[in-house]
Amino acid sequence: MDGLVAEGHAASTVRNWLDPLRVVCRRAVKRGQIATNPTADLDMPSDRSAEPAIPSREDATRLVAALPEAERAFWATALYTGLRSGELRALRWSDIDLDSRLLRVRRSWDDNGSEVEPKTKGSRRTVPVVPRLVKALERHRELTGRGGDDLVFGRTASAPLERSTIRRRAHPRRVKIGDDRRVVR
To answer: What's the CA dihedral at 159, 110, 91, 51 to 10 degrees?
Structure first.
């Protein structure tokens, strides 16, 4: 474990590599095949010390402005609402009331390519829409010509974005946003 950490592997990677060994050792102790579990007292590395990078309002505005126009509304919605990837993929224009500046999360898109109900009662929620997001969504609606029950961010009005497309667009290429600071694009 120490060697993996020293090589610079992420804490989650180290845990994923060692967990099968820990299970095998636990089972071997239960079956009497070994006397003690050599993995029992391992202090597994933790990701808890890493603070998530949350851009300031100014940085978020600059980041969205630096993106291609066709991607701005998607990433602005992700930044300003905190919706999960599946929720963004399943979002329909009928879920958004720009006049009231509210967005309702009613469904998600799962990994099997199906529209599903939110997993928990708390996942079904109403989210406020900030004025700068209203503008981005209005522009996106103009560009796509969609409305009603159409998907807001689909490949088409009825086909969602692929998860791989979102991951590829979120690849950690850097975009300079000023003051010599950089933000992930």
So the answer is: -130
